[in-house]
Each structure stands twice: as structure tokens, then as C-alpha cells.
Amino acid sequence: MTQSVLKYCSGCEKELTTEEFGVDKQRHDSLTSRCRSCRNKYSKKWERENPDSVAVKNKRARERERKKYLTPEGRRIHKDRELRSTFGISLAEYETMLKNQNHGCAICSRQTAGHRTIYFAVDHNHKTGKVRGLLCSSCNRGIGHFFENINFMSSAIDYLRSHNENTAN
Fold it and tell me: Where are the alpha helices (DSSP H) in 69-129?
């Protein structure tokens, strides 16, 4: 039978197991002086009583984050994380796909991604999550507006053909 170690919480003034305390590497036992529950209550109270300090702290944090992404390398790191978490591909895989598509949209071959972005949209099957290719924002939205339904898209093609007045494009 293992014996759990107890520690005194200076907030609730109770002896609790060490699992109920957070980590503080600066303390001799590497644990916070208050249990997690007391630390949360104290933090919330302090934030309510010091809104100006909280605003300054949050502003500094936002500025640090913003500066991180202002450099080209920071933007690449951010895009890599975004692609990995959203689509399960790396930035290197994205760039390989784009190269294989001759640096253009997989549907219309347009060389620009869209109005307010430098990155092409990662087109994927919404049911399976499988990545299909990279699209400009117009083609990506077009597929989305047709709910990825091949029958709807085919009907749209038939409709356009039936109303074609021999206009260019």
C-alpha cells in the first residue's frame, strides 16, 4: 500500500495530497504554496480587483504574439502549426503540393490564391478529412457552395452549357 504525501495549503489552510498542487520550480519542493482550487480563486479575485493590470498584461502578451508572426520565419512557423493542426500536413507538404500544381489552383490554374491571402486553400473531403489539393479562394468557395455535391455541380455545368451564348471564357 502506497502512502500519499501531504502538503499544507496556505489558502484553505488544509493538508492536501501533493497531486492537488501545481508546479513551481522556484520553490524548494517544486510545488505551489496554494492548491489549484485556491490559486484559481485567488487569481480570479486578483483579476477582478486589478482590471488595469490585467489589461496591460494581456496587451503585452498580444504584442509578443503579434511580433512573433511579423517576421517571415515566424509566419512560416505559424502556418506550419496551423496546417498540422487543421489538416495534418506540414508546410513542406503544402509547398510540395503547390509545386506539383505548378504553383496554381488545382481547378482553374490561377497563380494567385485570392483577394486577401497569399496561401491557397487546402481542399479536403469534409467526411474523411483527406486532403485533395490546393485551390484559390474562388474555387474553394464554389465547391463549398455546392456542398461538395457532384450532382449539383454537374447540374450547374449543364445549366451553363444550355445558356451559353458563345461568350469567351
Answer: 72-87, 91-100
Secondary structure of residue 70 in the 3-state scheme: coil
Residue with cell 493542426: 85
Rounded to a whole number of angstroms, the CA Rg of the chain reads: 27
Is residue 105 a part of any domain in this protein? Answer: yes
> Residue 100 falls within a domain, yes or no?
yes
Average pLDDT score, the chain: 93
In a domain, 167, yes or no: no
Q: What is the pLDDT of residues 125-151, one digit of tens each?
A: 988 999 999 999 999 999 999 999 999
Per the structure, how many domains does the chain have?
2
The per-residue pLDDT for 92 is 98
Q: Which domain holds residue 144?
A: 89-162
Q: Extract the C-alpha cell encoding 41.
A: 480563486
Between CA 156 and CA 20 the distance in angstroms is 61
